[in-house]
Amino acid sequence: MNDTIEQLAELGPDAKILAGGQSLVAMMNFRLARPSALVDITRVAGLDYLERDVSGLRIGALTRHRTVETTKIDGFRVLSKAARWIGHYPIRCRGTFGGSLAHGDSTAEWCILAVLLDAVIVLQGPAGKREVAAEQFFHGFFMTAAEPDEMIVEVRFPKPAPHAALTEFSQRQGDFAIVAASARLDLAENEVLTSKIVLGGVAEKPKIVEIDLAGRPATEETWRAAGETAAAQVNPPSDGHGSGEYRKKLTATLVARALAEAAA
Ligand SMILES: Cc1cc2nc3c(=O)[nH]c(=O)nc-3n(C[C@H](O)[C@H](O)[C@H](O)COP(=O)(O)OP(=O)(O)OC[C@H]3O[C@@H](n4cnc5c(N)ncnc54)[C@H](O)[C@@H]3O)c2cc1C
To answer: 203-217: per-residue pLDDT in tens?
Structure first.
């Protein structure tokens, strides 16, 4: 790992880390990225793990999407379920958890869930390690808090979220989501204690919906109303995949679905 940091510092800010290559190579093919050098981290030891600790979960940066999909961890089932939305099987076998966060696509399942579950991203650079809360990590379209000479080494999820779900809509299976919605609830009896909703595909980075469902009944009506509130808070862009208005409607539907799934 230290070799990687040394090489990044030596090669300068135009060098890039190559992990699964599932985003970077495509960008290089389209000439959207022209790195001066690639530092291949795929064989760096000790970065491929999912580990429960006393309170939460730690995921090594080189853990493949497929590993997350096939490792069902109590309290974190939302991760294995959400992995199925990522691309196709070969992409999930190569793409990495850290690579997805570093790429910083606002529709990426791991970016959305990192914000939803209050994850902390551990970066290592020449000055050592530092931790950045996921809510502060994403700065905009493909822009994050990571410096060019830093590498994501680990992602920490502080506590289990048994009532959490992510759902999305895309035109074809395996495509990036047009809109994705995720929700996390704490429930007592049939009432909401706390809630958090995070959206993808409606802004430059994962968007937290400003809503507090505490004290509301855990019913379809509450979920539907929350969907409408979420839709009213977004002003998504239009593009070839759908208009902003269409994305707003998707937001309402998907938020209601995510909340119902999280509560179930
Ligand atoms: C057809 C297709 C469909 C896809 N669909 C989805 C989808 O639905 N959802 C989804 O989330 N993703 C999707 N992806 C992207 C996929 O999940 C990628 O695996 C992921 O975005 C990047 O991970 P990677 O390991 O391949 O990183 P790479 O492509 O190797 O790198 C991506 C970027 O992150 C940097 N980087 C990589 N690792 C680190 C690190 N540890 N520290 C710092 N910087 C790092 C690289 O320098 C580069 O800038 C799709 C890809 C394809 C080709």
So the answer is: 999 999 999 999 999
